[in-house]
Design a protein that fits this description.
The protein has a single domain, classed as Beta Barrel (Lipocalin). By secondary structure, the chain is of the alpha+beta class. Strands 1-2-3-4-5-6-7-8 form an 8-stranded antiparallel β-barrel.
């Protein structure tokens, strides 16, 4: 091989570096580890703790990844007594997003025990305040759990709002995709 050609190939290889090993979609693929179990195999209270939540959107247009720090905690006795006759809650918490809509960040990040930003009930995790007709919430369905975290799929709900393509006016489906919540060691 000629020296000039070897230098050109080396320069070309340097320009096309491999993606970093910790890039979010690569760290949160749709597959789960072999150690994962069905969520009913584990008590919901075992999911209390801090996680890095990675959500990968697959619709209406893929390739958007959202990350944040998710905190889940058991209900104290006062909050548990207040929920009698109301919605079942196993854990409550908040999500600190790294970017996005400030109003959505405020809802998801709420630490108010009566209106928490995150509620876990069984295998379902709701992010944002439920019951607002003009508010946005995300519903995450947990399909697998392990000591490393939990995985599943998610769907956004816009309330009464819809999003349409500017040119055609075609209404787009609500955002949806898959997620993983990787436990952050203490």
């Amino acid at each position: 091989m000629r020296p000039i050609r070897a230098i050109a190939l080396l320069a070309l290889a340097a320009c096309h570096s491999a993606p970093p090993s910790n890039s979010e979609p690569a760290r949160c693929g749709p597959n789960v580890p072999a150690t994962a179990q069905h969520p009913v195999a584990l008590r919901a209270s075992a999911l209390a703790g801090d996680y890095e939540l990675i959500q990968v959107r697959t619709q209406p247009a893929g390739s958007k990844t959202t990350t944040g720090r998710l905190h889940l905690a058991p209900l104290d006795s006062l909050a548990r007594a207040g929920s009698v006759g109301g919605p079942v809650r196993d854990l409550v918490g908040w999500l600190e997003l790294r970017d996005g809509d400030p109003a959505w960040q405020a809802n998801a990040g709420s630490r108010d025990a009566s209106h928490p930003g995150v509620v876990l009930a069984g295998e379902h995790l709701r992010i944002g305040h439920q019951g607002y007709l003009d508010g946005y919430t995300e519903n995450l369905t947990i399909t697998a759990v392990s000591s490393e975290g939990f995985w599943g799929w998610w769907k956004g709900e816009r309330g009464l709002g819809v999003v349409a393509e500017p040119e055609s006016g075609r209404v787009l489906p609500d955002p949806a995709g898959y997620f993983c919540a990787l436990r952050i060691p203490r």
